[in-house]
Every structure is written in structure tokens, then in C-alpha cells.
């Protein structure tokens, strides 16, 4: 299959900070690649390079057949970008926003207007379309921003954290729209820090951390990589955390993660093992609020791959992961 | 040719978008319509009565100075607008579109010409109300307005470049104030340059804002009779001196701003 996005060895430094340290990406036509990573992993840098907003220090990339270095103008004709910060104009109406984007894509005045009306209808913004965006809700702004990326019906869509900051209902709505786009045959590169989002939308996931790829595969493949079930324990008291980790250690088949009153450990043997663990806790005199067994999620994938999931640097991502699940 | 057609079409669309914003945001409209009136009226009545020019009207002398000062401050609007668009990610969206790479900054500075024309019309109206008159005919007056607008246009390019370097509206506003305020006061905007002490006088004489005010006064016929002829070249040829500044500023800052826009973030 033809790769519609093909990037090799992308490097970008900001002073001493390494934004990207040699990232490769391939996105076959008509597929969805999820670029997954915590804040500061390099997702937005990668997107900026692929959309020609930023020139890489090293590496090459082709988007829809055009080289980002030698034919940036061609790349821009063939992509639609929807950014992290909902780059819609507060003072223009929804219609004026889309109409302007259409004109700047050089669709012609008539076609730009028609396209704007079409998209407002499709994104359930007809009524709001004649009002300035200033009064829109977060979800409406995101939908309008996404509509902006679709104005020229480009073969490649790049969505940078499309649902960051949205409430669960608006997020679910946005996912439905994105799924429709995918069913319609769009090629999509999606960045996200929500494991669930990647799981729901992407068939292929590249996990990045600190500017490089640390894993690559389908959601199921990635989950298999970490294997086993997860036992989750909620402690009554934070003071028991260290003791709890020591108690569960003999049963764990991989790294144990603990924060405050929550301990997660991969175990094998299902309910039987869980029973043994609970007995051990009881013998150690550690009081539990709750305990349970679940299948591994992408959260676990990320934690076990990066191994620094509980460090301060990635704390915001962890908080987001919990909100998403 | 297609490149030029795109450039003009894109620039027009950007300017149109900026104008919609000017008309829709009450704060901006106030600063276009009300602030200049306050300036003209305030200066006319506060200073106008205090200084007596034999055979002439200080109020008439003042008005061209107020024009020059207000239009100089107008450049801040260019910078603040561009900085706001950068902060909100609107510039990133524009940069991801297959549009002309210089249209955004050219569209921005063109909008500000329209904005400045609105300001000038309002200020001229206020000037007429407080007793300012055009004495040298309409053609000459139009030339005077053109010099004012050309200078304001050049300043817009400086502020556009600064905004692309430091995209923080608050910083733009405060630095612009720190630079533009003295520039418009250490000049012949409100008092003849000859009255200033030593070094300030030299600065005022060669300050382009003085030349702008002087050129406008000459064009409107607002130089009080009996005023001694200026002794420095800059004020003897104020229109030419202003235009040299305009050409140099635009020649330096337009390419800088466009380049900065294209290479942003790299």
C-alpha cells in the first residue's frame, strides 16, 4: 500500500532541548495513525514539521507525494490541519471563519461560500453559524476548527490533540465525527495524550516519548506487549503505599506502579492469584478500600514502556489518562 | 502572474477579516473614534489657550501635531493585532494554508491604513470643530494627509516585525508606549522645536515625527505668520525628509517581517 505520509529521521532541537531525536512515521493511504505521548513528548513538533510550520534540523518527509522541504506549498494544498488550541477567529462568525479559510485555499468566492454552508450543516452549526465564535462552547469551537481543516477536502488530515480540554460528551461527539471521516476514506494523523482516544480511533499507534518512538503497533499488539492482567488496589491510607508495594511484589510479573493510595501490578493466574494477594494484604494488616482485576489498557502500555510514568514530568498526562478512562 | 493574483486576493481577504474585527470589537472602535477626538479637543483647550502666538492660532498649530502623534500610536494597533493572532494560533492556521506567504503581514499593514484613515477623518472633524482650518486648498491638504498616512504605514511595518518577534500584546503595548511617547513629544508636535534646550532640540529637529508634523502644517497652511524659517534641512524639506524615512523603514522592515513570518518557530 502507498504511504501517504512518510517521514524519516526527523530531528528538531530548541536550543538545548531535543524536540525530536530521529522520528520515523509512515501512514498508509486511508488509515489512521495515532501519535501517542505525554505533554512535551514531541507530538506538536512532529505535526508542525509535517504541516510545514517548522523546518526540521535533519530528516525528510513526504506528505501526499510532496516534499516538506522542497515543495512546502504543495504540501499545504494537500493537508488540512486542526490544531490543539482551536485556531478559530473569535470575532468572525462560524460562517465567516470557514468562508475565509476557503478563500485562502483559493477555492473561489462561490465555492468557498458553498463549502462553508455545507460544513456548518454537517457539523451541526447552522444556527450558530451566523454568530461570532466568541460565544461558542468549547465543543462547538472544536467542531468549527475541525470543519476548517476539511474546507478544501484535503487527502490528508492532521489533527493535533483534537479533544484536549473537552468534556466527555463533546469528546464523544467529536470522536463520532472523526470516525465518520475515517469511514469516508480520509487519511488521518492524530496526536493525543489520551490512551483511550488512540485506542478508539487509530488502527496503528506510534508511542513517542522524549522525541523518539518507543513502541509501534496496533492497539491490541501494544496491549499484548505488556501482557497479563492488572490488579488494582485502592489503599485506605497513603502511609501504607510502600508496605503495599512490598506485599504485592512476590505476585507481580512486571513493574509495579503506585501513587498515593493506588497500586497497580501485572499478575498472572487471574482470580486465584488475586485471592492470594488479598490474603497477603490481610496478613500484613493493610486496610483496603477496593481491589479488582482488569485487562491491560494502553495506560499500562505507556507506563511499562516509558517506565517514568509516575515522574513529575509526565504528571499532567497521567491526570488526563485518568479523566479519559 | 498567478503569484501576484494570489498575493492580492489573499492580502485583500486578510485585510477584510481584520476590518470585520475592527468594526465588531467595541474597544477598538472606541480607540478609533473616541480617543483621537479626546486628544484633539483636550490639547486644543488645555494648551490652546495657554500659549499665545502673535498673529496666528496655536490651536491650528496643535492640530497637525495631534494628527502626527495619534497616527504614530496607531502603529501599536498593528503590533497588538498581529501578536493576538499569533497567541490564538490563527497565524499557525494561516501558515498551514496554501496562501501567499507575505499576504498576512501585508494584509495587516493595509488594514491599518484603513484604520488610520478612519482615525484621520474623525480627528479632522474634531479639529474643524475646535477651530482648525485648511488654508492652502484641498489638493495641498490631501497631500498633507498622504504624508501622515505614509509615515504611519512605515511605523506599522516596524511594529509588525516586533510583534512577530515578541508575540505578547501587553509587551507590545508597553514598549510601543515607551518608544512612541517620547518620540512624539520630543518633537515639534506641540511646541516649536526651537524652544527646546540643546540636545533635545537637535533630536527634535531631526526627529521624523517633527518633519511629519511640519509637512502637514505646511500643507494645511497652519504655520503661523512670522514664524522664523527652519534652520535645519530636515524641517526645510519636511515632506521629502519624511518620505526618505518611509522608504528606508519599509525597505528594511517589510522584508524582515515577511522573512520572520515565513521562518517562524525555526
Overview in brief:
The complex is a heterodimer of chains A (about 325) and B (about 270). Chain A is an alpha/beta fold. Helices cover about 40% and strands about 25% of the residues of chain A.
Structure write-up:
The complex is a heterodimer of chains A (325) and B (266). Chain A is of the alpha/beta class. Chain A is 39% helix and 27% strand. In chain A, the strands form 3 sheets. Chain A has a 6-stranded mixed β-sheet with strand order 6-7-8-3-9-10, sandwiched between helices. In chain A, strands 2-1-4-5 form a 4-stranded antiparallel β-sheet, with helices on one face. In chain A, strand 1 and strand 2 form a beta hairpin. In chain A, helix 3 packs across helix 4 and helix 8 crosses helix 11. The C terminus of chain A is likely disordered. Chain B has 266 residues and is mostly helical. Helix content of chain B is 76%, strand content 0%. In chain B, helix 4 runs parallel beside helix 7, helix 4 packs across helix 10 and helix 7 runs antiparallel to helix 10. Chain B is elongated and about 60 Å long. The two termini of chain B are 30 Å apart. The chains are: A alpha/beta (325), B mainly alpha (266). Chains A and B meet through helix 2 and helix 3 of A and helix 1 and helix 5 of B.
